[in-house]
Amino acid sequence: MDWLLILIPAFFAALVQGITGFGSVIIMMIFFPAILPIAEAAGLGGVVMLSCTASLAWRYRRDFHFKQVIGPFLIYASVATWSVHLGRVLDTHVLRLLLGVLLVALALYFILVKSAGDRRYPLAIALGFMVISGFFNGLFGIGGPLMALYFLSLSTSVPTYMGNLQGFFLLDTIYITSVRVASGILTPALIPYIIGGIIAATLGTVLATRLSAKWDLTQIKPLIYGFIGLSGLYYLFF
Q1: In whole numbers, what is the pLDDT of the chain averaged over residues?
Q2: Which helix (H) or strand (E) holds 231?
Q3: N or C: which end of the chain has fewer CB within 10 A?
Q4: What span, in angstroms and rounded, lies between the C-alpha atoms of 133 and 212?
Q5: Is this structure's pTM higher than 0.90?
Q6: For residue 62, what pLDDT band results from cuts at 50, 70 and 90?
Q7: How far apart are alpha carbons 236 and 99 in whole angstroms?
């Protein structure tokens, strides 16, 4: 049963990330904490998706814009470095509820206000996205929804959106995994789960690549907003 809770979520997590650009760890964190503590589950989810993220980043490498990514990454990573240790000492229930409300509200706003996704965010809002995302990435390994909105606002095409977002996630995964290893959160005991999860995630990525090959940004946006709303509901009720 433990292996089913690793392999099946990893497959569907990669499928979702390959289509919307984010959301993989959200799916895995519904199931992984059933067999692992929160901190270890978050770390496992990040490592499992490393091959998926790396393959997507390589696929869209020509549309990766370093200058658009490095500033947000440094802010995000700084906050995540601090918050990665808080999962063991904080009561995170209220924080999850607040994030859930925020994500559901944002999803409804972007779905109902059709022009909202076509504008760039003011600096203060963009910085808020980076700080909030980094904080929850350190706690739960889930920082994607708000960063997806941020990079979506800078993008004019699916390749640009995916190139920047997957490049960002690749930097994030390598860095925060190193922090978790150094902190003793990720240990050699998790290696069998990591290998099995990577295999399942690779299969999910292959299927996602075939499904999304002919889609444009207009078709992808409703999926992104819808999954942000589902992410918020997950935080509210699980």
Answers
A1: 82
A2: helix 217-237
A3: N
A4: 26
A5: no
A6: very high
A7: 8
